[in-house]
Specification:
alpha/beta, 7 strands
Length: 213
């Protein structure tokens, strides 16, 4: 049976309740990936890693060390399941389906409404890679290649593009001229100049650091 084509999108989770069941080696990175989204993160687990406990102590997540109950899905927008029990994982997924809650059971594609993509992050620039659950290893290899291609300098460049875009859109230029200008700012030539400038600044800062130390 051919799998359906996934719909790629970036989702806003700020203020939404996200439930994670399981807080060990598998659940920890899933929880960590949610923290910067601004979501309200509820974690239910019998045991939790030291890192997850630290996040709870810092107020970044709400952690309860107990068994999962179906009521934990009440008011939940999205659920991630990462326990060591296949039977429990399946029952949570079915309960989430019954309640209309988006659910991902880690490493069990047939129990996933969505997949975690391999992501390259450079500030506001995010490049997500998916193989429709067929080969997470390939996704990771492609991510590593893209990380080398899109270096750290892209973060500053994208931020500067955002500020410049606001100025251009607020100007009195006609719409066609605005489009031309925005396209030229995002050109390869503009990129090379911006990255070269960022590299020079970083080198200068590094030299100054060496002098002071």
């Amino acid at each position: 049976m051919k799998m359906s084509t996934l719909f790629p999108m970036f989702m806003k989770l700020e203020g939404k309740r996200c439930l994670v069941v399981g807080a060990g080696n598998v659940g920890e990175p899933k929880i960590g990936g949610l923290i910067d989204t601004g979501a309200r993160i509820q974690v239910i687990a019998l045991q939790a890693s030291a890192t997850v406990r630290g996040w709870a102590q810092a107020g970044k997540i709400a952690l309860e060390l107990r068994a999962f109950a179906a009521e934990d899905l009440d008011g939940t927008f999205l659920a991630v399941v990462a326990t060591a029990s296949p039977a429990l994982n399946g029952s949570i997924y079915r309960e989430a389906q019954r309640r209309g809650v988006l659910c991902n059971v880690v490493d069990v594609p047939e129990y996933c409404d969505f997949y975690y993509a391999a992501v390259v992050r450079r500030g506001d620039l995010q490049i997500a890679i998916s193989t429709n659950g067929q080969s997470p290893s390939l996704s990771q290899k492609l991510r590593q290649q893209l990380e080398r291609q899109f270096g750290p300098g892209y973060a500053q460049w994208v931020a500067e593009l955002g500020e410049t875009r606001k100025l251009v859109l607020a100007s009195d230029l006609d719409p066609e001229r605005k489009r031309e200008l925005l396209h030229s700012l995002a050109s390869r030539e503009a990129l090379k100049a911006a990255l070269a400038e960022a590299s020079a600044k970083n080198e200068l800062m590094e030299n100054e650091r060496r002098v002071t130390t």
